[in-house]
Amino acid sequence: MKYLSEYRDERIARALAAEIAERTTSPWVLMEICGGQTHTIMRYGLDELLPPGLELVHGPGCPVCVTPLETIDAAIELALRPEVILVSYGDMLRVPGSRSDLFRAKAQGAEVRVVYSPMEALKIAREHPSRKVVFLAIGFETTAPANAMAAWQAKQEGLTNFSLLVSHVLVPPAIRGLLASPANRVQAFIAPGHVCTIMGCAEYEALVRDFNVPIVVGGFEPIDLLQAVLMLVKQLEAGEAKLENQYVRSVSYQGNLPAQQIMAEVFEVADQKWRGIGSIPGSGLRLREEFAAYDATRVFSLTDISVDEPAECISAQVLQGLKKPTDCPAFGMRCTPENPLGAPMVSSEGACAAYYRYRRHAAAS
Ligand code: SF4
Predict the structure, then answer these.
(1) What is the whole-number distance in angstroms between the Cα of residue 254 and the centre of ligand 1?
(2) Is there an atom of ligand 1 within 6 Å of 328 CB?
(3) Residue 114, SS3?
(4) Is 276 in the pocket of ligand 1 (CB under 6 A)?
(5) Closest to 347 measured CA to CA, from 138, 119, 122, 77
(6) What does the alpha-carbon distance between residue 13 and residue 227 come to, in Å, rounded to a whole number?
(7) Cα 347–Cα 352–Cα 356 angle in degrees, nearest 5
(8) Do residues 32 and 171 make contact, with C-beta atoms less than 8 angstroms apart?
(9) CB of 335 closer than 6 angstroms to any ligand 1 atom
(10) What are residue 229's DSSP bridge partners?
(11) Is the pLDDT of residue 178 over 90?
């Protein structure tokens, strides 16, 4: 298949791995940001092709994993109201909140519907004018334009029974937070290609400049990731720090301008809590004042709550690249995809689920 099989070619992968090994003379720690990239690395065993000392750690780029417990709790609370239809992407249903999850709420009689697009949520709102339809709008910059479009369309139509429970996160402020942390050990980043397809590359240039750190925008296939690793190793070994784009077949420097425009019209940047990590300044999106009538937190007067993660879940350290999933004492024992303690074991993009699914079933301890 064109544009797919050539990016999974084993001979090319082994040649790239050999060149990476040849050029690596020092130990380096690289982080891939996106959970989709983590899954490719685990699925194809790319980390095992790399030379000793070249370590890949896994970043906070799984939107389900970083959605705060408080948002899940709020979604469950809304879903249990008789007037509400709670609409969500399917992978959010099993994410544990502090006491329950949306699947259990559904079993208790809540009306929870799964969709593939926020436009389907709008359709449900049109079809049920006597109910209040709430869409759980989570994700990175990739899903924000479609969610913004749903709010914009609802306003155009004058829909009064549709709102968004928003938990949007932004990648560059999260990388900035990681780099500014005294505990940081990451020396170079593979930036998420799909986010850059929307947002372009300019924000990453500022990170390269401010922290003197190499960043390569990378794709999601094995050859994409090995090429990105090679580009980073070349920079690190040469003592350089540049922004480069490996994923040129999708990412342009300016990104998708109409998508950025609708995001800017509907959302504004706000501080955002990341599950397990805490609040990161300017790392989220909230609905602008003009769209307050579509903001579920205002429509339902939801109050700020704060709840703690399960004590034994070390997802915060996993999401910051400080620990591997197999370092967690609960991994594969008390925490499995069937019975997850933390979000990284639930989501199809979570690092713990990736380790569990692809051969790393044995806990380290
Ligand atoms: S294995 Fe489970 S408990 Fe451990 S960090 Fe991952 S999600 Fe949390």
Answers:
(1) 37
(2) yes
(3) strand
(4) no
(5) 138
(6) 9
(7) 100
(8) no
(9) yes
(10) none
(11) yes
For 191-214, what is the HEC assignment? Answer: EEHHHHHHHCCHHHHHHHHHHCCC
Helix or strand (DSSP H, E) at 271: strand 267-274
For the Cβ of 17 lying below 6 angstroms from any atom of ligand 1, the answer is: no
Is pTM beyond 0.90 here? yes
- Cα of 342 to ligand 1 centre, how many Å? 5
Describe the chain by its helix, strand, coil percentages, rounded to 5: 45, 20, 35
Rg (CA), the chain: 21
Question: Can you give the pLDDT at residue 108?
Answer: 94
> For a pocket test of ligand 1, which of 352, 356, 361, 365 has the largest count of ligand atoms closer than 8 A to its C-beta?
352
Mean pLDDT of the 56-79 span: 93
Q: Is the CB of 342 under 6 A from ligand 1?
A: yes
State the pLDDT confidence band at 343, using cuts at 50, 70 and 90: confident
Task: Tell me the average pLDDT across 355-364.
Answer: 69
Minimum CA distance residue for ligand 1 atom 1: 331
